[in-house]
């Protein structure tokens, strides 16, 4: 989402994927026989799935939330490798699913996975019913990447870009729609049993704090991402050190 033309992919880039049955993700939790205790000497790999909010559009890479999270965890004595990122500006949930299939990472496992996807579904007026199906599908994939362990998956809510200059005062429309999409991803995440981190209230602080917005007038600044990471770090650290 660098400029209006490329902020979000146009509808013409969407594939005509047939709807799948709306089934919630299934996964395993740790049992005494499968639980792996993470120590500070383990090398831990990290997969970040998403869109422009994951790649950190309009900020330097070290200021993106995956890289700030990686740095914060290493600062807590963990040995985390730089994140593997599957994300591109403008991706819808369908686009992310397609990209994962093309990534060549099938069978690869990660110590933990973050997932933030859906703003472009809202922006492109895609149906909420489709989002329910596709979000459940991509969450199931995220769980698979995380050894099938729901405690290693961290879903972030969709930020509210309605408070940014880009939105042009349409916050009264955009905000409620973002809430509706977040209600979907939260319900699916809670039923699946993964961690859910609500960063949307932080994003709305940008209405009165312009320093939380990147120079492009749309995306979060490194300062906002740091606030997200302050919520994420204790959760991820606790899981990896247990």
Task: Walk me through this protein's architecture.
With 242 residues, the chain is an alpha/beta fold. It has a single domain (40-241), classed as Rossmann fold, CATH 3.40.50. Helices cover 39% and strands 10% of the residues. The chain has eight helices and seven strands. It has helices at residues 52-55, 65-75, 93-102, 119-123, 128-145, 171-192, 200-204, 222-241, and strands at residues 43-44, 46-50, 79-80, 84-87, 112-115, 153-156, 195-197. The strands form two sheets. A five-stranded parallel sheet has the order 4-2-5-6-7, sandwiched between helices. Strands 1-3 form a two-stranded parallel sheet. Helix 6 links the parallel strand 6 (153-156) and strand 7.
Write the topology of this structure.
Elements: E1 43-44, E2 46-50, H1 52-55, H2 65-75, E3 79-80, E4 84-87, H3 93-102, E5 112-115, H4 119-123, H5 128-145, E6 153-156, H6 171-192, E7 195-197, H7 200-204, H8 222-241
Parallel strand pairs: 1-3, 2-4, 2-5, 5-6, 6-7
Protein name: Lysophospholipase L1-like esterase
Organism: Mucilaginibacter frigoritolerans
GO molecular function: hydrolase activity, acting on ester bonds
